Write a sequence for this structure.
């Protein structure tokens, strides 16, 4: 199993559609389970509210922080042709298209963060089963 993200860092404008591209290769015959998880960026010492108004305000994603300091939630899962959305994303135009690409519809303020694409197969346990994509949503 090999999972890759085409664009590890995506910058999008507020209210524009976003597509995070995740691809996988597997020897499994049955379709795997694809899960997209969201993690907020690490909070800044100034108490940044996560709103990005210009490219110069892009958060520093290189500084590590514990998961306890972040917001973490399941965005969506896909098994076969069935996509299930996490509670926070119900009612939004969010889905998994193709094999494992996450379509966020119009980008919202709270969408900036780290997205983890995980592909799970009981028939293919070797290799790398996840990849990471960062999304920064810019205002006007």
């Amino acid at each position: 199993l090999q999972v890759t993200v085409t664009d590890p860092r995506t910058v999008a404008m507020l209210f524009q559609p976003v597509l995070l591209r995740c691809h996988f290769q597997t020897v499994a015959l049955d379709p795997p389970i694809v899960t997209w998880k969201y993690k907020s960026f690490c909070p800044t010492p100034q108490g940044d509210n996560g709103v990005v108004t210009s490219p110069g305000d892009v958060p520093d994603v290189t500084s590590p922080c514990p998961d306890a300091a972040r917001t973490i939630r399941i965005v969506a899962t896909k098994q076969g042709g069935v996509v299930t959305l996490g509670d926070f994303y119900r009612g939004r135009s969010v889905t998994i298209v193709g094999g494992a690409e996450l379509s966020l519809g119009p980008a919202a303020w709270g969408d900036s963060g780290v997205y983890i694409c995980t592909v799970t197969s009981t028939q293919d346990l070797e290799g790398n089963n996840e990849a990471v994509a960062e999304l920064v949503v810019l205002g006007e």
Observations:
- The first strand starts at residue 2 and ends at 5.
- The radius of gyration is 15 Å.
- Confidence is low (pLDDT under 50) at residues 47-51.
- Residues 2-53+68-138 form a domain with the Immunoglobulin-like fold (CATH 2.60.40.10).
